[in-house]
Amino acid sequence: MEKKQDMLPKGVLHAMLGGKKFSLQRYEPGGDVGYFVQHYWVVRWDLRGQAPYSQTVLAHPNVNLVFEEGATGIFGVALSTSSHLLAGQGHVFGVKFKPGGFYPFWQKPVSQLYGTVTTLEEVFQVETAPLEAEMLAMPEDAQMVRRIEAFLGERLPERDPNVKRVSELVGLIQADRTVLKVEDASRLSGMSIRTMQRLFDRYVGVSPKSVIQRYRLHEAAQMIDQGAVSDWLDLSIALGYYDHSHFIRDFRAIVGVSPQEYRQTQTL
């Protein structure tokens, strides 16, 4: 079982503080499951004797299967940010599907899951409660990984070439800071805008424009968290924005506050 780097990933807002409250481990999928799954993740926390902690996440364009006591389900891409209250001691296990990787299991436009949660019964025709109890009773990450790999391995759909196509395009958008518009992604991929929009609706669950915004703002939040921003105009340019006001507008629309307000909460 190969473990990914365990630093908090982009999208975890105020990650420097969050890293003191909980741990995150990620594990690579094996075999044929890896065609559909990006990685497995485990969050653990022990806040006994401390105040509860609310962690906010700026969503990635991925569907997640999450095992959490009393809240297990399949989570579509969140609307913008989502907050998770950590209290006492506990852990959560998740399966992060590749962008497009959940569609072959679901066989419906993934946009139908946008901002919603669905059950294991609906997708996999298994009872949620017994599997949740079995998974969360396992003391070791490796045991949970093996169990879910077996679960998914028994239910693997046929490989859909669009999964690879969409996942690679989302990866290009994530890596290239100059991609700020759907036209930029279309130029990179050689795919027409209309084709891209249809594929993203069916396979990813959100529009190409939404994916582009999220990844650029992931980088912005990470740089602010790391104290690497001395000038907002420089940050805008570093992320490929030609219009400083456009960057501020995007940040506020998705994160909920301006970049300056976000930085100020670091010291609260």
Secondary structure layout plus pairing:
Blueprint: H1 15-18, E1 22-27, E2 37-46, E3 53-58, E4 64-67, E5 73-75, E6 81-86, E7 89-97, H2 103-106, E8 117-118, H3 120-124, H4 128-137, H5 141-153, H6 161-175, H7 182-189, H8 193-204, H9 208-225, H10 232-238, H11 244-255, H12 259-264
Antiparallel strand pairs: 1-2, 2-7, 3-6, 4-5, 4-7, 5-8
Helix pairs in contact: 9-11
Please describe what this structure looks like.
The structure is a single chain. The protein is of the alpha+beta class and 268 residues long. The protein has helices at 15-18, 103-106, 120-124, 128-137, 141-153, 161-175, 182-189, 193-204, 208-225, 232-238, 244-255, 259-264, and strands spanning 22-27, 37-46, 53-58, 64-67, 73-75, 81-86, 89-97, 117-118. It folds into 2 domains: 15-153, no CATH class; 161-267, Arc Repressor Mutant, subunit A, CATH 1.10.10. Helix content is 43%, strand content 17%. Helix 9 (208-225) packs across helix 11. The longest helix is centred in the C-terminal third of the chain and has 18 residues, at 208-225. It is globular. The model has no long low-confidence stretch (mean pLDDT 90).
